[in-house]
From TrEMBL:
Membrane-spanning intervals of the chain: none
Keywords: ATP-binding, Kinase, Nucleotide-binding, Serine/threonine-protein kinase, Transferase
Biological classification of the source: Eukaryota, Viridiplantae, Streptophyta, Embryophyta, Tracheophyta
Pfam family, one: Pkinase
Domain of life of the native organism: Eukaryota
UniProt name for this protein: Mitogen-activated protein kinase kinase kinase YODA-like
BP-aspect Gene Ontology terms: signal transduction
UniProt-listed PANTHER family: CCR4-NOT TRANSCRIPTIONAL COMPLEX SUBUNIT CAF120-RELATED (PTHR48011), PROTEIN KINASE DOMAIN-CONTAINING PROTEIN (PTHR48011:SF56)
Family: Belongs to the protein kinase superfamily.
Gene: LOC107789428
InterPro entries in UniProt: Kinase-like_dom_sf, Plant_MAPKKK, Prot_kinase_dom, Protein_kinase_ATP_BS, Ser/Thr_kinase_AS
A GO MF term: ATP binding
Natural source organism: Nicotiana tabacum
Alphabetical list of CDD domains matching this protein: STKc_MAPKKK
Length: 389
């Protein structure tokens, strides 16, 4: 396909192709009149293009971006335009912010099997969380969070210590929160199999918690340089979906990660979406919050920095012994100690807690109580049991 097969815009020239997907193609675009860059358009943009007859996903992305303007952690949109291709077909073009640092997927690939540094991962994760929090607050679910859909843009903040800022892009599959997807001609699920949550696979439910699960997969991939699920050579997409949706298996969290990284990932990998951490809760986690001072100097992480909001957190005699109540206790990796409680004890208490938290308001009240008294140790479990009985 030649560069100009889709034609130039009124104010911009179409440049080289920089990406291609099922939606269409992405090209670089430069302004015909450089003086315009100080008014509205930047000097360089990314133009996502497809023939009008097959541009539904791109037009949907334009609609979503119109409703979530103003967030510095989401790719900006500069409008849309229709051009005429060389074959006479009408072409729909969406003008977007250009991520000169490439995609997060490309960055991970360049890092090799060792993954990115934890400093870099924390900065990218913090940006993605802020973007997701904004999307969820507006009432949308991204539905396709993955490294390919996260773009790296030069960081304008001199004190951050990071070269690039991660920005969320590709919202063509986004949907309104609590919007039913069971309409004719719609796919069974949206998104990429490797990053789908258990409830998306088994129950066709993709709400805000599904984005958090996908975020956890991205963070794990950044830290390890490997996909979130182990795949044998003969495994196809259907096999991966069975692995995610069936049973109680979770992505493996390596034992060599920092305590804070493992703790953060456990908050994302809770199979029951009701108990999974929200973007707002994770923004207060020490893995991403308050790590860089005004001079851009990284300070050491400390367990005392943990500020868990609205979460059920049990802290045993050792600070290392962190565990979360969820539908499935396998969210705690094999590298973590259960202290002086046996795994059977935890499973029994989990069943009791689940029955107590059947009512959402009781669950919220219990979360607040747990936050206030979490430093009392494992005795807090018995306290809540008595309180709610």
């Amino acid at each position: 396909m030649s560069v100009n097969e889709f034609g130039d815009g009124v104010a911009w020239y179409r440049g080289a192709m920089v990406g291609k997907g099922s939606f269409g193609c992405v090209y670089l675009a430069t302004l015909k009149n450089p003086r315009l860059k100080n008014s509205y358009f930047p000097a360089v943009m990314a133009v996502k293009s497809a023939e009008v007859s097959v541009s539904g996903s791109i037009q949907k992305e334009r609609e979503v971006l119109n409703n979530i303007k103003g967030c510095p952690y989401i790719i900006r949109c500069f409008g849309d335009e229709t051009t005429t291709g060389q074959n006479g077909a009408m072409v729909y073009n969406l003008l977007l912010e250009y991520g000169s640092g490439g995609t997060l997927a490309e960055r991970i690939k360049k890092s090799g099997i060792k993954g990115l540094s934890e400093f870099e991962v924390r900065n990218y994760t913090r940006s993605m969380l802020r973007g997701l929090h904004f999307i969820h607050t507006i009432g949308y679910v991204h539905c396709d969070m993955k490294p390919d859909n996260v773009l790296l843009v030069p960081n304008s903040s001199e004190g951050s210590g990071a070269e690039f800022r991660a920005k969320i892009g590709d919202l063509g599959l986004a949907k309104r929160e609590n919007q039913s997807k069971k309409r004719r001609l719609e796919p069974y699920w949206r998104g990429t199999p490797m990053y789908l949550s258990p409830e998306a696979v088994s129950d066709n439910v993709q709400e805000c918690p599904a984005d958090i699960w996908a975020l956890g997969c991205i963070v794990l991939e950044m830290l390890t340089g490997k996909p979130p699920w182990d795949r044998e050579e003969d495994m196809d997409a259907e096999d991966v979906l069975k692995k995610i949706g069936g049973g109680h298996e979770l992505p493996k969290i390596p034992g060599n990660l920092s305590k804070e990284a493992k703790n953060f990932l456990k908050g994302c990998f809770v199979r029951n979406p009701r108990y999974r951490w929200t973007a707002e809760m994770l923004m207060n986690h020490p893995f991403v919050e308050g790590l860089i001072d005004d001079e851009g100097v990284e300070r050491p992480l400390e367990v005392e920095d943990i500020n868990v909001v609205d979460s059920i957190l049990l802290i045993t005699e050792s600070d290392d012994e962190l565990a979360y109540y969820s539908e499935d206790w396998s969210c705690v990796s094999e590298d973590d100690s259960f202290g002086y409680w046996s795994e059977d004890d935890y499973e029994e208490m989990e069943n009791e807690m689940t029955s107590y938290f059947a009512d959402e308001e009781i669950f919220k009240d219990a979360c607040q109580i747990m936050h206030l008294i979490k430093n009392l140790g494992t005795a807090v479990v018995f306290f809540i049991t008595v309180l709610l009985s």
